[in-house]
Design goal:
heterodimer, A: 174 residues, Arp2/3 complex 21 kDa subunit ARPC3, 6 helices, B: alpha+beta, Thrombin, subunit H, 6-stranded antiparallel barrel, 5 helices
Chain lengths: 174, 275
Amino acid sequence: MNIIVINIVRFVLLILAQLFVINNMDLGAGNYLISPIIYISFILTFPVKFNRYAFMFISFMLGLVIDLFSDTYGVHASACVLIAYLRPSFTKQLEEQASSFTEVYNLSIYSVDRLGYIRYASVLTALFLFWLFLLEEFSFRYLHIIILKTVISTIVSVLFMIIGQFLFLSKPKN
Amino acid sequence: MRNLISFIRKIRFLLFFVFLQFVAFFFISNGSGYQKASIINSANELSGWFYSKEKSIEDYFTLQQVNNKLLLNNLNLKQHSIKNYQIISDRTIKVEDTLYKLQYEYYPAQIIKNSVSSKFNILTLNAGSNQGVEKEMGVLTSRGVVGFIKDVSANYSTVMPVMNQQFRLTAKSTKENLFGTFLWRNEDSFNTGTVEKVPNYIDLKNGDTMVTTTQEGIFPAGEPLGIVTNISEENGSNYKTVKLKLTNDFYNLNHVLIVKNILKQELDSLNLLPN
């Protein structure tokens, strides 16, 4: 299937999954500490060799759609743009590690070694969540809580995203 | 000049990043604030459509609870019916009463998006300007205050609920006519509110009910906000802080009433007058 069609479908499905499945999870008292974010899987798996300006703009729109639905004004858009800007420096490291780095396929857990991918996903997710929580709070007064929230939410989010990739992505045939 | 151009070419990716961040921050600063209109809000046709579809499925699972609530409400209304009262004297006659003039009108609505986990929770209703909803109308249930209308589109509107850090309202106890400021803090446990600046000499006990006042011109007087659970007095201060248990359960909100104060414009025009 065309890489563009795949990514449009992924864009829509990830937004719907985030808004109507993940955001409806009732974690009881954990609601304050755990807010799993899976839709940034779109940014993490986006084709590496794509035009980076277009990629950053698409990420901005992705965040803006989430903002539009969840009344967060522009917080998600800002965080999405941040990790879209930082992503190239992390994918470079992955490129050095991996021998068969296909530029057409999306960057999933199958295309590079697993541990490296999990590290890459964790760092970007943590940066995303930290920026998100900081902007929501808009002060350093509760920095310790923000850091705690970031750590816990990163673990849960990355877990969800990796499980999602194992479930919904097929292994690219070499 | 050439150096400058080549420098800009070198950092244009960074400039694009800064530009997009600038746009995002513009949206953020535009939306957050007590009574600001936000450009990016969930009272639009796209998210409204999705949320109302989701709600129409979810409705089937809460039918029983909603029916029970309606039954209790009907029972309450029935109890107040004139038929329950015996006529004491048949000499009295009915006259057209001109002592009362309608001040509050109610519109029905349903919450299609609920949120409780954030500090700045916003709800979405399936009623908008086509149904007569305007900004700064109150939102109630039979159990008490929910919030007030923040943004309105043609068919949807968003609500600033009690459980939002930016929410403020004057509150008083049912017994005395003195005010405090109601607000909600994130440190508070779930469904708990705070009333600040309650004068020390007011006699308050745990179990008292705090209700709305007509100060803001949003709510009718006497709509319940919460029940007093804890009172703390600071040394040397003339005020005490009161913790409330909110009368509404924000997890299970579904049907709400939107209150319109017909005299609000008149009230606001008076308040806007220079001193």
